[in-house]
Amino acid sequence: MLIVYGGLFFAMFLRIFIIQASGQVEGQVLAAKAAAKYEKSKVITANRGNILDRQGQTIAKDTINYRLVAVISPDASEGTKNLMHVEDKEKTAKILAKYISMSEEDILKKLNTKEKNAQGNLLRQVEFGAAGRNINHGTMEKLSNEKLPGINFVENTKRFYPNGIFASNLIGLAQRETQEDGDSKTVGKMGLESIYNKELSGTNGSVNYKSDVWGYLLPNSNKMVKPAQNGNDVYLTIDKTIQNFLEDSMSKVYKKYNPDSMVAVVANPKTGEILAVSQRPTYNPQDGSGLENSWLNQLTELTIEPGSTMKTFTLATAVEEGKWHPNAFFQSGQYTVLDRTIRDSNQVGWGPISYLEGIQRSSNVGMAHLLKLVGDDTFVSYMKKFGFGEKTGIDLPNEATGQILDKWPINRVTTTYGQGSTVTPIQLIQALTAVANDGKMMQPYVIDKIVNPNTKKIVKENKPIIKGKPISAKTAKEVREILATTITGEKGTGQSFASKEYEVSGKTGTAQIPNASGGYYWGKNQFLYSFLGMAPVDDPQLVIYIAVEKPKLSVTQAGSEPTAAVFNTVMESSLKYLNIKPEKNKKIKSKTMDNYKGQLVEDVAEDFATKNVQMVIIGNGDKITAQYPAEKSKVLSGGTVFLKTDGESKIPDFTGWSLRDVLTYQTISGANIEMKGEGYVQKQSIKAGTTLNANKKIGLKLKKPEDYYK
C-alpha cells in the first residue's frame, strides 16, 4: 500500500511540476484558458458618419432600431425567480399584434412552433420576420412597458435616409453586411456612400476588464476603455431646398409624360458647386425600391448626343473669333458637305434669313455656315477649350469623357449642332459656366467639406477651381444676350422657357437618339428634348440642364413642354429662395388673339406651341366652339388661353394655377369649384384626368407665392 500510494503521490507531484514548468495541459495554454474565462471584452460600436447638405441638414445618418425576439423554451426560466420565457402565449400574441404588422393568429402560430434546429432540438426562441425587424425606439419602449415575459429586443444600427428619393443616384446607399470575423458592419454599396466609405466608416472601440465566473468585476482589476471613433461627416454642395424643388418637379413631369428617362442638374456658375441633381427612373435608398431600374449616375456616366444645346458653344466660338455678324444673311434649308447634305428641322428652311434669326430658329444650316467662317481647326480647338472630350474632374468616379468627332468634314459640321459627337450632362454644365461667369469656366464639384466629428477638425475642404477661360467676359455677355432672344424673340424656339419675373437665357435641344442598327430613331416621341439655360441674364446666379428622353406627347403637345415644366418651376422657385430680386420694368411680350371658333384644335395647337402661351382645352371634340380671351384681346407671354370644344371634359392638373385662371376655367367649363385661400393652387380634391361632373364639387387649396418658400 505504501508503495502504491507513494507512486501515485510521486506521479501527481511530477504532473504538477510539468504543468507549472510548461503552463500547458494537453497542448492548451492555461493562461489563455483563464483569460478567456475571466478576462472580458465588450465592443463599443462606432457610428457611421453623416451625409449632410450645405446647410448641415441631414441626408443620411445612422439610427438605432430593434429586432423582436420571443423566448419560447421553458428551460430559460429554470433556476430563476422570474419568468424568462413566454408562458401566456394568447395574451402575448394579442398585445404584440397592436405593435407589429402581423395578425394575432400568425403571432400565436410563431409562439407555438414545433420547429427544430440543426441539432434536432426544439427552437428556444423565435423571430417574426419583416414585421419584427426595424422597430423604432418609441415602439420598443411601449412594448417594453407591457412587461411581457420572454419578449426581448436586439439592438441594431441601420442607415436612415429621411428624405426618401433625394439625389439618390448621387448619394447612393449603405447596408449592413456580415464581415469575415462574423461582425456586422454598415458598408457603402453605391454612390457617395461607396465612394467615401473609408471616410464615413468609423473605428469601433472596446472595454476590457477582468471578472469572476459570474461576470462581476474583480476587485482591484483595471478596466481598459478604448473609445470608438465615429466616421467623418461629409458635407455636400447640394442645397436641400433646391433639391426638393427639383425632385418635386421631376416627379410630376415623369408621371405626366412617362418618358424613358430624365436627368437634371442645377449649379452655381460662380463656383461650380452642384446645388441639385436628379434623374428618373431613380430609387428610394430607404427601402431599395426602384433599384432594379436605376444604377447609372446619369450626371457623369451618361454620354448623349446633345442636340441644339451645343449651338451655345458654336455661337460663343464665332463671337469670340469675330465671325458673328447677326444681320448678315444666309440661305436656310440645306447645306452640302462633299456628298452629304444636312437640313434644317423643317427640311425646307425659311428662305434667306439673318444669322440672328438662324440662332433663334435653331437653324442647323446656320451653324454650318458659322463653321465655314470660323474654320474647322479653330472650331475643334474651342470645343476642347470648353472641356468637351475630356473629364471635368468632378469629385465622382467613373466619369465618362464623351467624344468630339472631327475626323471627317461632315463630323465637324454635325458637331456644331450637337449630333454625332457625344458629351455628358456635367460637361454641358461646366462649359455653360464660362458663358454665365464672364468667361471663367468653373470645375464642378459635389463635396463641400469632410469633418471629423470627434475633433471637429476639417479633414478636407474643396474650393472653387477655374478650369480655363475659353472666351472673354465681353463675349460671354454678348452670347447671353443673343440666347435670351431665343426666348423673347417672336421666332424663338425657347418661348416656353420665359419667366414672368426673371430674364432667362438659354438654348433648346432636340436630338435624335441612336438605335441598335446604327441609325437613329425618328418621330415626335422618339427624340431627346433638352434645355441648357441660366438666369438672370445680366448676372446669372444659376445654370440648369434638363433632358427628357422619349416623352409620350399628345398631338397638341410640343417637345419643349416637359423640359420647360421642370426648368421654369425650379429656376423661379430657386431664385426666389436665394433672395434674388425679380427684375423690374421688364417688357413682357403679348399676342393678339385671333378668332379660333370653328377651327380644328390640332391646327390651333401648332400655332400656340411656339408662342409661349399655355393652352387649356375643355372637351374632347375636334373643333373649337368658344375661346377666352376673346378675338382681338391681348394675351401676355406665359399667359393662358382657354379653348372649348364639344364632348366630355377631363379635370386638369390645377397645381400652380392662379385664382384668375381657375375662375375663367369655371366660367367656361361650368365646373363646380370651391376654393380656399389666395394666390396659386397647391392641392386639389379630385385627381387630374377624372371625367368632369358638373354636379360633383372640386375643392382647391390656394397659397400665396411667399408661403411656398417658408
Short key terms for the protein model shown above:
single chain; 710 residues; alpha+beta; Penicillin-binding protein 2a (Domain 2); Beta-lactamase; 4 domains; seven-stranded mixed beta sheet; five-stranded antiparallel beta sheet; globular; Beta-lactam/transpept-like; PASTA_dom; Beta-lactam/transpept; membrane; Penicillin-binding protein
Write the layout of secondary structure elements.
Layout: H1 2-22, E1 24-25, E2 28-29, H2 30-38, E3 39-44, E4 51-52, E5 58-71, H3 89-96, H4 104-111, E6 125-127, H5 137-145, E7 151-160, H6 168-171, E8 173-178, E9 184-190, H7 191-195, H8 197-200, E10 205-210, E11 224-226, E12 233-236, H9 240-257, E13 261-267, E14 274-280, H10 298-301, H11 311-320, E15 329-331, E16 334-337, E17 340-343, E18 352-354, H12 355-361, H13 364-374, H14 376-385, H15 409-416, H16 425-436, E19 441-442, E20 447-451, E21 458-461, E22 466-468, H17 473-488, E23 505-512, E24 527-535, E25 542-549, H18 560-577, E26 590-592, H19 601-608, E27 614-618, E28 624-628, E29 634-636, E30 640-645, H20 659-669, E31 673-676, E32 680-684, E33 698-703
Parallel strand pairs: 4-12, 27-30, 31-33
Antiparallel strand pairs: 1-2, 3-10, 4-5, 5-6, 5-7, 8-9, 10-11, 12-20, 13-14, 13-25, 15-18, 16-17, 19-22, 20-21, 23-24, 24-25, 26-29, 28-30, 32-33
Helix pairs in contact: 3-4, 9-18, 11-13, 11-14, 11-17, 12-17, 13-15
State the gist of this model.
With 710 residues, this protein is α+β, with helices and mostly antiparallel strands. It is 28% helix and 24% strand. α3 (89-96) crosses α4 and α11 (311-320) packs across α17.
